[in-house]
Design goal:
single chain, 5-stranded mixed sheet, alpha+beta, 481 residues
Length: 481
């Protein structure tokens, strides 16, 4: 029984929450910039307007005198323009009000000139005002500006709205983090359930794959591919174990019986029995040696010897070794190589793989049993083709393919699927241990390639595909292994 983890212990929850926090922070920065820019622009506009009005009134006083200045101030206060926010004050040399719609709090003589903020009493209320102050030639003070009460209310409104937006974004981030965690947990639950069943021994379990090509779908497909490979390896191990037990029991029983019977025989007969027993023991040794070679290849230890390989030269060398054998039996080996393909790998292993395919083609090529019984004879014909090709023939990654085709009877569909299984033999009447093609399959997989068998109209074709490499990058590729 699995216990449900706390929300903050979930990576998905923490990532979503961090993203939400970053979003809230970004929004706060944007709102702060907006607030500062808005307030700054508004204050700059108010300052320019106050300075403009102040300069106009000073010029009017200089031109028309004190009485006209007071008259102009009265007209300004009665024109109905900005009457709810404007501040105009004409004060004597001691700071006492002469005319205007506001008074300084407390009453005093102003010492600082220019743009400044003051506490003033206006319309029976004490408010903050931003005014431009100047001294007239007669020593009187003139202040013109704006009531900041409306601006302060707007600032408070923007601040409350920003705070509300931040709180809302934070709450939405928390809700989104919980939802995101739940979605991820639901997608991951299928993986956990499947892996738990696999760990319990049920290797047939697979993670459900949806039609969406998202990250979890790709991960599920990779996990299923891994499970397919794991099941195949475990089936192979069970098959090998059963086959080894079967193949060992028969010869060991036969050896034991022969040795027991030889006790009662003449020395000459005993020598013959010992010779046969030695041959059978040697055969068992060959089987175990081949199994160890396959195990070594599958372990990946041979990657340490990988390097750039001239596939053409490799195939030519192997073909030249087998050509005299076919010539003696009246057969024919033809070689068709296009270009100079390169591959990254172990030359000895790839040569062994090609040799096994040629050996298989020579062994099963030519006339079938029914044709031979009918007196029809056909010599073995083997064609080896090397050329550039895509992994699936018409699509996929580029690479090099090695085709080994014979003119034998081919094989049925079931046999083609089992040809790379250890100890599988298509025909029991032919010599061999059933490990050659299993070795080829292990070598091709080690090199990241692909091995396929296809029936032709006459014969069987084996295809090895190896991924393509650039010659200039081969040294770097080896050093990274």
């Amino acid at each position: 029984m699995t216990t449900r983890a706390k929300p903050w212990s979930s990576t998905a929850f923490r990532l979503a929450l961090n993203y939400g926090g970053l979003l809230v922070l970004t929004m706060a920065v944007v709102l702060a910039v907006f607030y500062v820019q808005t307030v700054g622009a508004l204050r700059a506009r108010q300052d320019r307007q106050a300075e403009t009005h102040l300069k106009r009134l000073i010029d009017h006083a200089d031109r028309y005198g004190q009485d006209e200045l007071e008259k102009e101030i009265r007209l300004m206060l009665q024109d109905g323009v900005n009457s709810d926010t404007e501040i105009v004050m004409l004060m004597d040399t001691h700071g006492l009000p002469i005319i205007g719609n506001a008074t300084v709090v407390p009453l005093r003589r102003l010492t600082a000139l220019g743009i400044r903020e003051l506490k003033v009493r206006r319309a029976g209320r004490i408010v903050s005002g931003r005014v431009a102050v100047a001294v007239l030639p007669n020593g009187q003070y003139l202040a013109v500006g704006t009531d900041l009460q409306l601006q302060h209310e707007m600032e408070e409104l923007v601040g409350r709205a920003s705070l509300l937006a931040a709180v809302t974004a934070l709450v939405m981030s928390l809700i989104g983090a919980v939802i995101f965690r739940r979605i991820v947990d639901e997608r991951a639950a299928a993986i956990r359930t499947t892996m738990a069943r696999v760990a319990a021994g049920d290797l047939r379990q697979r993670v459900p794959v949806t039609g969406r090509d998202d990250e979890f779908t790709l991960l599920n497909r990779d996990i299923n591919s891994m499970l397919d490979r794991l099941e195949s390896l475990m089936d192979g191990i069970r098959h090998v174990s059963n086959t080894i037990a079967h193949n060992l029991r028969t010869p060991l029983t036969r050896i034991t019986l022969q040795l027991r019977n030889a006790r009662q025989q003449e020395p000459q007969v005993q020598a013959q029995v010992l010779s046969r027993v030695a041959q059978e023991v040697e055969e068992l040794g060959v089987v175990f040696e081949k199994l160890l070679q396959i195990a070594e290849v599958e372990s990946g230890a041979s990657r340490a010897h990988f390097g750039a390989i001239d596939v053409k030269a490799l195939v030519v060398d192997v073909a030249e070794f087998y050509e005299p054998l076919l010539d003696e039996s009246g057969g024919e080996l033809r070689l068709d190589v296009e270009g100079h393909p390169q591959a990254l790998g172990d030359g000895d292993l790839l040569a062994s793989a090609v040799a096994n395919l040629l050996d298989n083609a020579i062994k099963y090529g030519g006339a079938s049993d029914s044709e031979a019984q009918a007196g029809q004879h056909r010599s073995v014909q083997v064609l080896v083709t090397v050329r550039s090709a895509l992994v699936d023939g018409v699509r996929g990654a580029p690479g090099t393919e090695i085709l080994v085709s014979d003119n034998g009877p081919g094989g049925d569909a079931q046999a083609l699927q089992q040809m790379t299984r250890r100890f599988f033999r298509g025909r029991k009447d032919r010599s061999g241990h059933g490990l050659g093609l299993a070795s080829v399959h292990a070598i091709v997989q080690l090199h990241g390639g692909k091995l396929e068998f296809t029936n032709l109209s006459r014969g069987l074709r084996a295809r090895i595909w190896l991924p393509e490499i650039e010659v200039s990058a081969s040294v770097n590729s080896v050093s990274n292994l």
